[in-house]
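Weekly sync, protein design subgroup
Attendees: M.S., D.O., the rotation student, P.L. (late)

Item 1: inverse folding check
M.S. brought a backbone from last month's batch and wanted to see whether the design step gives back something sensible before we order anything. D.O. pointed out we never logged the input encoding, so this time it goes straight into the notes. Structure tokens as presented (792 positions):
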């Protein structure tokens, strides 16, 4: 019996090549897109899930209540880890991490190279997290402050097949570090914060502190929230109570008005990748969107199958009648047709797997991931199984019930029809298809407009044609000479120095005081050290006062933005006393507000101060025509002072684009999958239009004989489909507005959703549907009526 069912299935597929192709190819494309999106979702959800201690690991976040609003930082001061571990019994361990941002020179014998991906970590990093040491002692990974742990990749790079343990690497031609351990390469399923290639003891950070200003060094610096801190709690401990105790410890060690408005909270490691430090949603929104879009695409593919199967039900009516007459019951027929659906789905799934294997490299490149498609991976098998079962259930049940329910007596008498409710059901499904497709079209347009708005919005500074490079080694001793040498080049317009990239400031403080300050008025201020030329170079506008003069007196002159002045609540601020990091000075100038962070955030307070010891970046203004000459000039200076370091540079506009790399990737993927959804919908519409033309072939012939024009016949065949698309547009418009309005709320600076977006989407969907239907309608209208009527 099974053999007969298989033969019957392939016979039906071969008889109706066009419909078989539309059905199988539509399902295959839908399964390909749906599975690839679900793979992306699974990859996102798997980040950091491999740590066995995940349920008890928490990131500490600092919350500040300012002007009735709460700001949350995912960074914390260094002492909170050691004090918490020492004074709170519920804490098993505390681990601090921070990136080694500067390019680092490694030297082992004759091998010299620059490395860029190092992290300072506390010793517990290798025992609390699942980054096991292949070589070395996890309980004592850093025997002293000059120990270093390498990944297998870096160890092989410098030592080849030799044992790296105990070998000495000279760092920056200055300090000798002994290799005390080797770990596996950090997996792609680890958060970016963990992805290092070499690790140094966190205590080395303490060596950078000037004991003149901070006698207790790092362990006494409660005001700098610069480090990621993880707490590993004892099982059963209350995170809320531990966070309260940590708050009290901080307030005890730094008693002032600022910390009185501060409290700590915990974010579980399981949420670190997809949520903000305050627990609000971040990447999880994209995960939900992709999950929904995957389901939508699979649903559209299923609707195609249902529509094409039920539309052609009359072609198999006599087969059903004969089978019932010779003894087949409804259950047997239901099993047969469900089995046929399953076989078609197996073929489609096989094609989908082939497509996925072929497309995975391109998909990884677009998604910026390292996903692998391994059929023997239990997670992959689960996704395949659930997707296959769900789509088969949704798409296979109804056609099987319909076909098995035909009455043989009516069929033999020629009174059989599958119109009425069946036709109405198909119209409902087509409407759902195009409702989902139009919603995705509207979403694609709005996402594109928002990203365009971000990229073209006036930032308050000029980011074009500005080359940036890190200051290293001997360059610090010759900053004036470097500037003079570069300024002599005709292709270079201006040179300046800064502590960090203005595109995305990552350093803040609450250590401020000023003349006329109200007792409870506190706020967080972003800090940037720069020289006098930085303002002209970036095109920053001073609205009051004056800038720096590159003299020692500038150390007591502060320039604040307009938002900072508003937060301070003072009038006529120029010349008034201002203290920053306990260094007294005056407010020398006010700079017009500018965007120094993502458009997801509102403009916050910022302060410019003059301290050459903070400078880390050189900025060079040039022109697009002279970019290559400028790069060569800066590289020459670089090699003059740092001959062993690899020259690295970036352009500021490229750094700006990196802020929205995630949005750009998601937009690209969303556009691709929206196009796939529309394509699948059109496949189904084409199949239904072909079927409609076939069922009305004699009617078309009679109308042509009676004088109907081609235009009239095309309009007759297209009318019902166009009405369904218009209805879908009416339903999709408010649905898309609600979804996209929710998405836009994540941006502090966003577009308004304009009415014309919906009109464009509707016209586009209508045009696509009309083109799809008209192709078959025109073919039917141009057919010779004699051929369709000669059998009558």
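Designed sequence read out in the meeting:
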């Amino acid at each position: 019996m099974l053999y007969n069912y298989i033969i019957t299935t392939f016979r039906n597929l071969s008889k109706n090549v066009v419909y078989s192709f539309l059905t199988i190819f539509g399902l295959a494309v839908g399964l390909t897109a749906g599975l690839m999106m679900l793979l992306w979702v699974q990859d996102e959800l798997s980040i950091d899930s491999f740590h066995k201690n995940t349920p008890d690991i928490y990131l500490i976040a600092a919350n500040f209540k300012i002007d009735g609003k709460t700001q949350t930082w995912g960074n914390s001061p260094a002492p909170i880890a050691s004090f918490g571990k020492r004074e709170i019994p519920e804490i098993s361990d505390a681990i601090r991490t921070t990136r080694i941002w500067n390019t680092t020179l490694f030297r082992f014998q004759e091998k010299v190279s620059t490395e860029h991906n190092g992290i300072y970590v506390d010793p517990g990093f290798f025992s609390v997290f699942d980054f096991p040491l292949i070589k070395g002692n996890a309980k004592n990974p850093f025997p002293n402050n000059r120990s270093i742990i390498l990944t297998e990749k870096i160890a092989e790079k410098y030592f080849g097949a030799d044992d790296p343990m105990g070998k000495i690497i000279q760092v920056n031609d200055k300090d000798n570090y002994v290799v005390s351990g080797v770990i596996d390469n950090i997996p792609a399923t680890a958060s970016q914060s963990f992805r290092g290639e070499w690790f140094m003891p966190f205590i080395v950070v303490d060596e950078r502190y000037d004991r003149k200003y901070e006698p207790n060094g790092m362990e006494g610096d409660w005001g700098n929230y610069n480090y990621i801190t993880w707490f590993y709690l004892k099982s059963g401990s209350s995170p809320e109570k531990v966070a309260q105790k940590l708050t009290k410890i901080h307030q005890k060690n730094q008693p002032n008005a600022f910390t009185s408005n501060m409290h700590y909270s915990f974010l579980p490691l399981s949420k670190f990748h997809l949520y903000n430090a305050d627990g609000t949603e971040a990447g999880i929104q994209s995960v939900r969107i992709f999950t929904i879009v995957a389901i939508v695409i699979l649903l559209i593919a299923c609707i195609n199958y249902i529509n094409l199967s039920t539309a052609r039900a009359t072609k198999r009516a006599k087969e059903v009648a004969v089978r019932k007459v010779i003894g087949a019951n409804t259950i047997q027929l239901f099993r047969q047709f469900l089995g046929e659906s399953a076989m078609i789905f197996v073929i489609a799934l096989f094609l989908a797997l082939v497509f996925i294997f072929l497309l995975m490299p391109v998909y990884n490149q677009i998604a910026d991931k390292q996903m692998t498609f391994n059929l023997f991976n239990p997670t992959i098998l689960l996704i395949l199984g659930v997707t296959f079962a769900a789509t088969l259930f949704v798409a296979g049940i109804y056609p099987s019930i319909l076909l098995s329910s035909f009455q043989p007596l009516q069929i033999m008498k020629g009174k059989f029809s599958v119109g009425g409710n069946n036709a109405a059901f198909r119209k409902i499904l087509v409407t759902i298809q195009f409702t989902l497709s139009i919603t995705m079209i509207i979403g694609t347009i709005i996402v594109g407009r928002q990203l365009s708005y971000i990229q073209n919005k006036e930032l308050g500074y000029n980011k074009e044609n500005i080359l940036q490079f890190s200051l290293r080694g001997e360059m610090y001793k010759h900053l004036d000479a470097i500037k003079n040498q570069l300024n002599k080049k005709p292709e270079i317009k201006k040179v300046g120095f800064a502590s960090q990239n203005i595109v995305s400031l990552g350093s803040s403080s609450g250590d401020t005081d000023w003349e006329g300050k109200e007792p409870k008025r506190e706020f967080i201020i972003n800090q940037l050290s720069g020289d006098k030329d930085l303002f002209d170079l970036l095109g920053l506008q001073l609205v009051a006062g004056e800038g720096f003069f590159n003299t020692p007196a500038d150390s007591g002159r502060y320039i604040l933005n307009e938002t900072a002045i508003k937060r301070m609540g003072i009038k006529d601020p120029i010349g008034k006393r201002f203290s920053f990091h306990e260094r007294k000075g005056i407010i020398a100038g006010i700079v017009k507000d500018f965007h120094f962070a993502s458009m997801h955030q509102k403009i916050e307070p910022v302060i410019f101060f003059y301290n050459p010891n903070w400078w880390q970046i050189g900025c060079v203004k040039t022109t697009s025509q002279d970019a290559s000459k400028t790069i060569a000039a800066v590289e020459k200076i670089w090699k003059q002072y740092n001959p062993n370091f690899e020259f690295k540079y970036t352009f500021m506009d490229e750094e700006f684009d990196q802020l929205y790399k995630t949005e750009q990737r998601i937009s690209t993927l969303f556009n691709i999958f929206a196009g796939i959804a529309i394509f699948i919908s059109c496949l189904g519409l084409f199949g239904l239009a072909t079927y409609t033309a076939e069922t009305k072939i004699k009617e078309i012939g009679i109308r042509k004989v009676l004088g109907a024009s081609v235009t009239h016949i095309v309009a007759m065949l297209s009318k019902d489909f166009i009405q369904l698309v218009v209805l879908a547009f009416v339903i999709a418009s408010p649905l898309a507005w609600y979804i996209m309005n929710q998405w836009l709320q994540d941006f502090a600076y966003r577009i308004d959703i304009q009415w014309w977006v919906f009109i464009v989407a509707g016209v586009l969907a209508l045009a696509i549907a009309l083109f799809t239907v008209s192709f078959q309608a025109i073919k039917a209208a141009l057919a010779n009526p004699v051929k369709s009527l000669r059998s009558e």
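Discussion: The radius of gyration is 34 Å. DSSP finds 23 helices and 25 strands in the chain.
Action: P.L. to compare against the previous round before Friday.
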